[in-house]
Amino acid sequence: MGRAEVSPLPQASAFAALANDGEYCAPVKVTEARDNEYEIPEANCEQTLDSDLVAQLNETLIPIAEERTADSDRQYPMTGKTETNNFESSTWCNGYTTGLSFST
After folding, report:
1. Where are the alpha helices (DSSP H) in the chain?
2. Is the pTM of this model over 0.85?
3. Which of 12, 60, 61, 84 could cysteine-pair with 103, CB 3.0–4.6 Å?
4. How far apart are CA 95 and CA 62, in angstroms?
5. How far is residue 104's CA from residue 95's CA, in Å, rounded to a whole number?
6. Is 1 helix (H, G, I), strand (E, B) or coil?
7. Which secondary structure element, helix H or strand E, spans residue 92, and what is its range?
């Protein structure tokens, strides 16, 4: 355990590498509250994790998450991790499925 200030965006970005066979892409802003359109910069991606290692990790994590979620038919494999800060004043949930990650 350690102590570091990390916002949801870098957490979701890190989980996205697990959702994308180990390829990490730096986050880019794609929408905003007023639905204005912006030119989206080209993705800045690189292979940061071995895809075989990611596959082994997913083989472990996906069944654990699926056993502990609401009982329903899932169309996609998924997994996640809950967290709290050192003072337990906030909680997080990070997760991913193939090609998609989130942090709330």
Report:
1. 8-19, 51-67
2. no
3. 12
4. 10
5. 9
6. coil
7. strand 91-97
